[in-house]
Design goal:
The protein is mainly alpha-helical and 184 residues long. 66% of the residues lie in helices and 0% in strands. The chain contains nine helices and no strands. α1 runs parallel beside α9, α2 runs parallel beside α9 and α4 packs antiparallel against α6. The longest helix is centred in the N-terminal third of the chain and has 25 residues. The model has no long low-confidence stretch (mean pLDDT 95).
């Protein structure tokens, strides 16, 4: 199954992104509001660069099965940016996506960050500096986070055949490399 292959083949990049964004500080109580603002800004830049291009590369059939329009996150992250007084950036050039398999690889990173975002929001909300924040982006699916992830993995595994695995992996790598290119 491609979901397991993606997880195994991108683990090093995933771990590098977590280290790059000081994720360990979230769990040891040292993550500051400045760290959080940076994390929101970088996720915004990621979505700005990839969301429209990825969604456009998914076939209508798969978009319907994924309930893709409910997976848009730019509006949610903009709410957090407004609360945190983060200015929106100029439009980034959208990424060129070669095919649907590559789009699925990028979407794997997007959806995985939402799954992890639930954990981040839960952890940070325990800290006094974060108690007044709504975490709109990290809680964008609410109680449906688990079912959205399960649905995504099901469609991913169903649609990405072995012949398309490398394109899918390349998409995930492209997403992680972009995140690593952002300055912390």
């Amino acid at each position: 199954m491609i979901s397991e292959t993606l997880k195994a083949n991108t683990k090093i990049l995933h771990d590098r992104v977590e280290a790059h964004f000081n994720s360990q500080r979230i769990f040891d109580g040292r993550f500051s509001v400045v760290d959080y603002r940076n994390l929101i800004r970088y996720n915004y830049l990621f979505l700005l660069r990839f969301e429209d291009a990825v969604f456009s590369a998914i076939t209508p059939k798969n978009a319907q099965q994924l309930n893709l329009e409910k997976r848009r996150k730019l509006a949610s992250i903009k709410k957090d940016m407004e609360v945190l007084n983060i200015e929106e950036s100029a439009t980034l050039t959208p990424v060129e996506i070669r095919n649907e398999a590559e789009a699925f690889g990028i979407l794997y990173v997007m959806e995985g960050s939402t799954l992890g975002g639930n954990v981040i929001a839960k952890q940070l909300s325990k800290h006094p500096d974060f108690q007044d924040l709504s975490f709109s982006y990290f809680r964008c699916y609410g109680e449906n986070t688990g079912s959205f992830w399960k649905n995504f993995k099901q469609i991913l595994d169903q649609e990405i055949t072995v012949e398309r695995h490398q394109d899918c992996i390349s998409g995930a790598e492209k997403a992680y490399q972009f995140l690593l290119s952002l300055s912390v």
